[in-house]
Amino acid sequence: MFQNILKQRYRLVFGYLGNLFIFFPILLLIPLSYCIWNPSTFAESLSFIVTAFLSFVMGLVLKMTMRVKPGSAITVQEGAIVVLFSWIIAILLSALPFVIGGYLDFTQAVFESTSGWTTTGLTLVDVEEIPGTFLLWRSLMQYFGGAGIAIIMMSAILGPSGLGLYKAEGRMDNLVPNIKSSTRTIAVIYGSYALAGIAMYVLAGMNVFDAVNHSLTALATGGFSTRTGSIGEFNSIFIEIVTIVLMILGATGFGIHYALWKKNFRAFWKNGEPKLMFVILAVFTPLLMTGTLTVVYSSGAERFRHGLFQTVSALTGTGFSTVDFVPWNQFGIYLIVLLMIFGGDLDSTSGGLKQYRLFALIMILWLEIRRYFLPKDALLKQEIWKGETKRYIDDSLVKEILLVFSLYFFTYAVGTGILMSYGNSMALSAFEFASALSTVGLSVGITSPGAPAGLLWTETIGMFLGRLEFVVVIYAITKLLRDGKIIFRRRRNA
Q1: How far is CA 78 from the centre of its chain?
Q2: High-pLDDT (> 90) share of the chain, %
Q3: Rounded to whole angstroms, how far apart are CA atoms 217 and 243?
Q4: Helix or strand or coil: residue 384?
Q5: 479: number of CA atoms within 13 Å, CB side?
Q6: 97-106, pLDDT tens digit by residue?
Q7: Which residues contact 442 (CB under 8 A, 6 or more apart)?
Q8: Whole-number Å distance between alpha carbons of 462 and 417
Q9: How many Å apart are CA 223 and CA 405, to the nearest integer?
């Protein structure tokens, strides 16, 4: 009996995966729009059509085989499995055009695809040689990856099932009680900012193609660029200002955006994340200016310009750069590492430990200090806001912070050690793996097309775990192993 129920639940899981990947070809075919303006690139872009066909067939087979009843509810635990598999399959499908087109081998293509969907921005492609369709695909992966595959494709499975996927991807900002409305609200906010970014880039002097790509990747805090020298190649203060604004918008949680859109300034002011973010920027920018950039630039204006940009880029997890990190001293390298570890807001497109957890940790310390000076039986409550939602610091929040921090730093130590085993210094290894694990994309040169496969797979796993924040992956794998063990045991006893 239990085994039959378990089979039905997994039919539901794979049926929903089928629904997801019937719609995935729509995303895969968007880059072909570039061929309208550049027909000569169409022959080089046929790999997208092949991959779209494979995705559609796979999705259709799963849907027809599993026959899921529309609107069937899915739990958070099952949602974790859907999220895990949807990300893995989407990454593999997204890597195929690079492989079929002959631009990257399998390991490199999976790395590039993972870097795209996780909004990291570490890259192995030569942007001057690869066709524009592939450049656009990289930007689209980051843009849609920022919102989350399970969120942007929610239209395929909306209903009671939506909440399971929404929570499984580690999101807290349920903007309105209805999941469908929350998804639409995110799409409106995200889309409006992207269109505004394109317009501002064009006004700042970018051509339309560059403007589209950089608006998508800046807002997604991804960092893929159409230029070898990233944003620095444009050498434009106005373009850098637009980029800074988009990076900060992308690193701000959707719930905070929603509060601002509703003109709920009281709720916005109650949120600690934006305040903490600007405090960190205010502290680290002058530290970079005086501790590192004085060696590189003689002008105070240039030091401020590049110091602010790199601080914002690292903290938001974007990875755009206007400088070369090779001449930097170790002080500057470690400052950037700290910023990458801090990360942006929870429920934003950025990675890292997240400002919400850092702010909560500060509040926990303050709460304990206050308790020390009060009678033992005194009751103290410390509120903490997320968007328009107020909660109080409790044991569950403390456990969540401890769990995420522990998993993050354990993974960080292991990953840094592996990069060091390939002959890289500790400072450079710590920088590069922090960039991967916090889904940032800044590089000191360790990541390259000629890098060993083991190093690339280490960073690929780091990007994947960092984007899904460890817990979703652990929950999904644990449930799969537990359910597999139950089925195996019952079959053996049958």
Answers
A1: 22
A2: 61
A3: 10
A4: strand
A5: 20
A6: 999 999 999 9
A7: 121, 223, 313, 314, 319, 321, 325, 336, 340, 431, 435
A8: 13
A9: 25
Q: What separation in angstroms does the CA of 140 have from each of 32, 39, 116, 117, 156? A: 12, 20, 8, 9, 19
Residue of 2 and 373 predicted with greater confidence? 373
The CB density around residue 327, as the number of other CB atoms within 10 Å, is 10
Rounded Cα gap, residues 437 and 421, in angstroms:
18
For the packed helices 106-117 and 453-468, what is the interaxial angle rounded to 10 degrees? 20
Q: Which DSSP helix (H) or strand (E) runs through 392?
A: strand 389-392
Residues 353 and 343 sit within 8 Å (Cβ to Cβ): yes
Q: Which amino acid is at 434?
A: A
Cα separation, 138 vs 112, in Å, equals: 8
Integer Cα distance of 384 and 364 in angstroms: 10
Contact between 355 and 365 (Cβ < 8 Å): no
Q: What is the pLDDT of residues 244-264, one digit of tens each?
A: 999 999 999 888 998 888 888
CA–CA separation, 316 vs 304, rounded Å?
18
pLDDT digits (tens, 9 = 90+) for 340-380: 999 999 888 888 999 999 999 999 999 888 888 888 777 78
Q: Note the residue count of the chain.
A: 494
**Contact assessment for residue 169 and residue 151, using Cβ atoms and an 8 Å cutoff:** yes
pLDDT at 301 over 80: yes
- In terms of Cα–Cα distance, which of 223, 28, 214 is closest to 115? 223
What local confidence, expressed as pLDDT, does residue 174 receive? 54
- Mean pLDDT (the chain) is 88
Rounded to an integer, what distance in angstroms lies between the CA atom of residue 322 and that of residue 336?
Answer: 14
Banded pLDDT at 339 (limits 50, 70, 90):
very high
Residue type, 381: K
Rounded to whole angstroms, the Cα distance separating 380 from 367 reads: 8
pTM above 0.85, yes or no: yes
431's enclosing H/E stretch is helix 426-437
- Cα–Cα dist 138/230, whole Å: 14
Backbone angles phi, psi at 391, to 5 degrees: -135, 170
- DSSP, collapsed to helix, strand or coil, labels residue 389 as strand
- Identify whether the C-beta of residue 136 lies closer than 8 Å to the C-beta of residue 31: yes
